Batch of 2 targets.
Target 1
Amino acid sequence: MGATRVVVLGAGIIGAACARELALAGLAVTVVERGAPAAATTAHGEGNVLVSDKGPGPELDLALLSRRLWPGVLDAVAAHLPEAAAAVEWEPKGGIVVATTAGGARELERFAAAQREAGVTAEPLDAAALAAAEPHLTRDFALAVHYPGDAQVQPAGTATALLADALRAGAVLRAGCEVLGADTAGGRITAVRTSTGTIGADAVVNAAGPWSGETARRLGAPVDVRPRRGEVLVTAPMPPTVFHKVYDADYVGAVGSGAGDLQASAVVESTRAGTILLGSSRRRVGFDERIRPGVLSVIAGKALRLFPSLAGATVMRAYGGFRPYVPDHLPVIGPDPRLDGLWHATGHEGAGIGLSAGTARLLADLMLGRDPAMDPAPFRADRPAVLSEGESR
Ligand SMILES: Cc1cc2nc3c(=O)[nH]c(=O)nc-3n(C[C@H](O)[C@H](O)[C@H](O)COP(=O)(O)OP(=O)(O)OC[C@H]3O[C@@H](n4cnc5c(N)ncnc54)[C@H](O)[C@@H]3O)c2cc1C
């Protein structure tokens, strides 16, 4: 008997990471991507690999697992593919969360204390330490907490490197190939129908990001994954101004909110190219791609509150993308109990870049019957939030 044939649906960072883990484990992997690899949500995010924004619970556990895995994954890629690995731009620079109001400070203090209980390093910074760490940051703050565990990557470069390593390990990529449906026999997937032909398959991994709801429906087992829009402003390259991931304490509330109207908070970081990314917003507007100047000006205003000196910066461009959102804010990782052979690795919302390493390891553990690296139960596909009808997208 040959190796298990797995179709990974989607070549964003989640599909790339899963394809790599499964190919390295000896499975016969075909990655099917309707566009180009890493060109959808993965190319439209920032590159935060954060533990700081997650409260105790399964998402933080997945973030901590991912954070432990990243250095080893990247070293392994670099050992075979040094050029691809260079595009990852891994920077374990740490994060600083800043509360600018007394209420925000109380909330941040409570949040950081709970995180410390869960194993996160979160160190309060006094005014002198903050000024040394971020000389251009406002001095008008109520509390700042340093998270040395936060890191950064270049998202598209990272997805491309993971995919390249998957291909090196034997995976096959079919780009420009859209998944249309699945053939089944006796309640099991036997093949995937695509725009360029049928691919025999024992298993399919639904890693279609914000389109995972639609792809799951096509495959015969719908899940409730919706798009949640986000926009980012990019400055022209600047002299070194921002040295950590810096964000305002409101960010955690915006992430956790399920509201459809605009949620915005300042998330500021520099890139190796010298640009500064100013994020980010959250709105539920379906797949409406229009950039809204009003949203950009709210983002800019919040960023200036943290870094007043950016008032003189030139904005070079703005972009937006669609986070894959599940109403209970947890990803979906594991088998679909309604259709044998269907697996999901999706719904990572605003954290899929950072969480991809742990997601891929957990998915591979489950598929291969290994002891899972963490408890997979909270990410089950048959929980109510995933199977609910949901509202219109
Ligand atoms: C503004 C913004 C900022 C963000 N910042 C961060 C951050 O700092 N850190 C972080 O961790 N995350 C961040 N995110 C979230 C992160 O970008 C996503 O969670 C992640 O990219 C999701 O990856 P994915 O592989 O699931 O989806 P995608 O990258 O969208 O990949 C899915 C792929 O499936 C393909 N596909 C869809 N339908 C089909 C079909 N029928 N057939 C074949 N292929 C199909 C698509 O073309 C696509 O390439 C941000 C997102 C946004 C929008």
Target 2
Amino acid sequence: MTCGGDTGKAIKYIQKLCKYKEWQLKGIAEIKIPENYIALFSVPDKETSTQIIKESDKQINKIISDIKSENEFEIINPSGLSGTLKSGITNTAFYKIFVHAKGFHYTNKCIGCGECVTLCPLNNINLKNQKPVWKNNCTHCMACICGCPTEAIEYKNNTQNKRRYYLK
Ligand code: SF4
Ligand code: SF4
């Protein structure tokens, strides 16, 4: 779960889910990953991203070991009022106003490989005449635009000449 740079108050959704499932919540653990939201921000260069990913691998290994040992995690609730606002009203308004696939389009660099179709976790892209067509179920994960091998996808006028998120 994420709320941008931190988890906001996303923990409340996990707590609700655990209650519904009658699971015991053992806490949450934090993993830092590189910025990928190129619709609004710039992403780190390849070297910085590689370093962040390397660090996150260490964090993940520690988490795996804690889970195997049945250790409990801290219930992180870090963001106070800011988290409440981010996970509440800001999140609702942001999704409604901004999180749509409408802004995505392909350029003449598209070679019709279909990688964007494969990468979309919500099956929101089809190929028509070997070119991508976006449907209405997008969560702005940025996988299609960052994973296109020829950088043929742009988002509105926000992403031209911007570095793509380093995925590998
Ligand atoms: S991944 Fe890029 S090149 Fe491949 S079909 Fe999609 S837009 Fe075209
Ligand atoms: S941003 Fe993510 S969810 Fe939206 S169309 Fe691209 S891959 Fe699919």
